[in-house]
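Job type: complex structure
Entries:
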Amino acid sequence: MRLISARLSAKRRSPLAGLVVLLLGLLLTGGAYAVLAPANAQTDPADQSTIAKGRSLFLVGCASCHGANGEGIVTKNGTQYGPPLAGVGAAAVDFQVGTGRMPMARPGVQAARKKVVYTPDEIEALAAYVASLGPGPAIPERDAYDPSTIPEDERNEAIVRGGQFFETNCTACHNFAASGGALPGGKFAPSLRGVSNRHIYEAMLTGPQQMPVFSDGVLKSSEKRDIIAYLNSIEEAPNYGGATLGSLGPVSEGLFAWIVGIGACVGFAIWIASSSVRSKKGIKA
Amino acid sequence: MTEHDNPTGTTPQPRGGHGTDVATVEPAGDPIADPGMHPHEPRPTDVDEKAARRAERQVATLFGLSSLFAILCVVSYFAFPIGDDPAIILGFGASNVALGLCLGLALLCIGIGAIQWARKLMSDVEIVEARHPVASSEKDREEAVVALNQGISDSGIARRPLIRNSLIGALAALGLPAIVFLRDLGPLPGGDLSSTVWKKGMRVVNDVAGTPIRPEEVEIGQLINAEPGVFFEENAEGEPKFEGTHLNQAKGKAAVILVRMKPSDITPAKGRENWGVDGILCYSKICTHVGCPISLWEQQTHHLLCPCHQSTFDLADNGKVIFGPAARALPQLPIMVDGEGYLVAQSDFHEPVGPSYWERGER
C-alpha cells in the first residue's frame, strides 16, 4: 500500500496526472449519482424486465402500425397510420389494450371495443414499456376511480354532483343515459354501460381517439370519481317507467311505434276486414 | 267466373244484387264487365247452433276477462308501493307494469270480443252502396242563390252604405286589441342580444365546479365546458351575483368551451393571432343556427358538432362552418393569462353570440 502511494506520489507531477484525477473525479461523481439519485421507478431491475417483456410483446403485436420504437407511422398522404406513443402513458395502454380496442383487427376510422387479446400481466408489461418511452399519465390507483371509497354518508351527494358533471361534459356525445351516440364519418361515442370504473377513468384522463382529454388539473380526480359513481348509480337503477329500448331516444322509440304499434293496428284492420269462414251447408243448390 | 267473362267488351252483362238503380250505366267500351255480387254463403255459426253457442261463449269469456283485468288493475293500484322504495318486477317498476298491463288487456279484451261478436254472430248481409255525385243538385243550388239575394235585399245593406261602412270599421277596430296585445309580449331585449357578461380580466372557470383554469393544466386534445367566473361569485351580502332566470339568461349567452390544439394546427384569421394562449382557444358554446349548446368535439379532426342539426365548425380555422345549416362562424372569445397565471377574457365577444335575429344586421 505504502509502495503504491509512494509510486503515485512520485508520478504526481507527471503531465498525465491531471487527466487521471479528472477521470477519477468523474467516475466518483457518476457512481455517487447512480447510488444517491432520487429513486426512479424505472431503475428497478424487476421493472426493467417487465419493460423488456413489454418491448418484445410490442415488437410482435404493435410495431407494425406504431413503429419499432413507438415513434408512429405516417402514411404517404400524410395521415397517421399508427400515432406516436411517446408520452401517451401507461393509462392509455391499459385503456386501449384492456378494453380490446388495441390491437386493431384492421385500419379503420375507429377502434371498437372487442375481446381482450392480452392477459393482465402482458397488458402491464406493454404499459410499462410504453410508459418508458416518455412521461405520461400512469394507471390510476384504485382510490382514484372506485366510488366505494367515497364515505357512505357522502355518496348520494357525490352521485348528484357527478350527474351534473356528466350532463355538462359527457352527454353531448355519450347520450343522457350513457348509451352512446353517432359521430360523423362512421365514428361513434361508445356506450358506457358495462365498462369498468378504471377504464372510464383512464378514458377521461387520456382522451382516446376522438374523445377530448379531461385532465386532472381541470376535472379533478375526485370529480371524475363522482362521475363514475353517477354512472354506476344509473346502471343499477331499475327502469320505473318500463322498457327503455336502449335509451336511444326517438330512434328506437320511433322504430318500435312504427313497426310494433302501427303493425298491430294494421293486423287488427286486416282481421276485421277479412272474410270469415263460410259454410257450404246452407247453400241451396 | 267464366260466365261473367266478356272478351269483346261491347255487351255488358246485366248485373245482379244492386240495391239501387243509380249509376247503372256502364262506360262504353269497358273491357271487363261488373261481375256483380257473388251468391251469399252462410257462416258456420248461421247454420250450426253448436258453433253459434261456442262463439257466444268465446265472446262472453273475452268480456269476462276484461272485467277481471279491470279489477286487477284497481287491485295493483293499491297493492304495489311506489315512491322512494318501489316494488320491482323484472327490473321495472311493479306498479307501472301491472297498471299498464291490466288496463291495456282490459281494453284489448273488449275490442277482440267485439270483433269476434261482429264476425261470428251479428247479422251477415252483403250491401252495395252506390257512389253519388259530390255536387248538390241544380235545384238546391238555385234555391241557395235565391235565398242569399233575398237576404241581401231584406237587410238593405246595399241601400244603406252608412251601416255597411260603419260595420266594416267596427270589425276592423276589433283587430286592434289583438295587434297591441301580441306586440307587448314582454319588454324588448334592446342591446342585450349583442353583449354578454364577459369583460376584460374575467376568469374562465370550469362549469359546475367553478374552478379557475391554468393553461399548464390544459392538455392538447382537452375540452373544457366553461363559464364566466362571475356566475360563481357572491356579492357583499353573501348572495350569488346571478340567480334563477337572471342566471339562466346570462348563461344562455356567455357559456363557452375551451379547447387546446397543437399551435401548428391552428390557422388564426388576421387580427386573431393573439386571441389564444399556446393553442388554447375559447369559443362560444351557443350554435349560430338556432342556439343549441354544443360541446361535441372531435379532438383529432378539431371539428365541433351541433347535435341538433349537425352544423359542424372547424375550431382550428376560426370556428368556420364546414357543414350544416349554420350561417355564421362560431364566435371566438379572445383570452389571455392574468397576473396569477389563470386564463381570463381579453374582452367581451366581438360579435353577438347565438342565432341570427332581425336587428343583428350583417355583423
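Summary: The CA atoms of residues 97 and 118 of chain A lie 7 Å apart. The interface with chain B takes residues 161, 164-165, 168-169, 172-173, 181, 183-184, 187, 207, 209-215, 217-220, 223, 238-243, 268, 271-272, 276-283 of chain A (CB under 8 Å).
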